Amino acid sequence: MADRVPRCAVFGATGYIGGRLVPDLLAAGYRVRVVARDPARLAGRPWHDDVEICRGDALDADSVRAALDDVDVAYYLVHSLRRQDFADLDRRAARILADAADAAAVGRIVYLGGLHPADQQLSAHLRSRREVGDILLAGPVPTVVLQAAVIIGSGSASFEMLRYLTERLPAMVTPRWVDNRIQPIAIRDVLRYLVAAASLSPGVHRAFDIGGPDVLTYREMMRRYAAVAGLSRRVVVPVPVLTPWLSAQWVNLVTPVPRSIAVPLIESLVNEVVCGEHDIAEFVPPPPEGLLHFEDAVALALTRVRESRVSTRWSDAAWPRDPSQPSAADPEWSGGTLYQDVRTRYSSAGPDRVWQIVEGIGGEHGWYSFPLAWAVRGWADRVAGGVGLRRGRRDPYHLHVGEALDWWRVEQLDRGSRLLLRAEMRVPGDAWLELTVTPADDGGTVYRQRALFRPQGLTGHLYWKSVAPFHTLVFGGMVANITGAAEQPERTPTDPFPAAAPAEAAAPAGGQAHPVPPAGGDGPAAGQRATGGSTTGNG
After folding, report:
1. Rg (CA), the chain
2. What region holds the NAD(P)-binding domain (predicted)?
3. Which range among 62-76, 139-153, 398-412 shows the weakest confidence by mean pLDDT?
4. Could you count the other beta carbons within 10 Å of the beta carbon of residue 129?
5. With respect to CATH, is domain 337-538 assigned 1.10.357.10?
6. Most buried among 104, 283, 375, 436, by the most CB within 10 A?
């Protein structure tokens, strides 16, 4: 028994924290049992095959007892925010867990609660989280309650609200609570404390405040976020008349964060949330480099989003990976706004022929839609101080990663199947163009084209909306002419790119930056017409 590997059960693994905790526990050498109401939601996780999956509901005592059989550490990361009676449900679920853990002789319970002041009236959200911690601590099973305020990491609801408000509003009227003090903490430091809690001695049975090294106001957080993100200084004007309820309606209006989440988050900010003690350092010393400062945590979160913005396989990456990266478990509104224009068309030409056209795009071969429109856009870019279309291409038929291609740069190249171009023209955001070639069952080809755009600030959103009406002309023309050119007979072995028929077009928009779903996908069957259009997403 001395060599037995401890088993951890994670309740809430489909959520933001739980989905990131599981790979960290596996990396630390623990066996992990994941408890979920719907195990099918875990099918796409990179750690799916490395854990034991158990169907269970926190409000079903029998399923909780079964889930805790032969478990050493139970992680409880469950909240019922979306229900009006969430406080009653949270109390019931906490009592069920405490009783089941006692009956199963679980060695420790670890709960992540909310940081709160000891001497102030709390919001219903914070009060409920405190009650859950109190119920677990009142039981006989050794329990550690970690209490955190705003968690900084892409996908965290608190961070996403901060991100959207700061990026979309260069000036804003705010409630007085923007000047309340907050002690944010980076997601990687939260996970470090959670993993370490599993190995604390049985005598440790208490709550700990956890926070990063900075104590800031929400106003300061928005301004520092803007500085890290390269945005202009945000103008924040506090007024006394905005109640938390009105503030939540405003957040719901200007951000995609759901009202059901925005309300409890804002209500919790009415209180100052600063660590009252730092006793956790006696049991879990800080890392040699120290806890992450706010700006570093923001920069890391933004870098992870931008580095993996259009990677087609980020959600399949092997664990362990940096917890600041976007996760398949993150809500659809997290990660910043992603605008897309996606178009797909079947071609009777073979994949090799279509790829010849794709890899030969730009330079002397042009962009397969109205040349004058591209020339005007290139001229406008040069006037604005950009590179325009004057760079052309190094080789007329072959591309390499890192080389310039007119106002684009080749960021990724899977020869024969996928070309990803990053825009270097002057646009208020990050722009990409992705071209993919997929063999069809009948020997033809499915050609897929995505223009993506991650806006920076309000100007970026207005830019996309102003050019979106022209996308059918620009990108629709490209799709039709690229596939049409591929279907024409090759002229000579040394000049395989026949001139494309001109198409009506206007200046193109660009493409985006944040982790997205796999390229390729299901294209139309042979004989189907091209499909496509602009969409908005949040990566």
Report:
1. 26
2. 12-122
3. 398-412
4. 25
5. no
6. 436
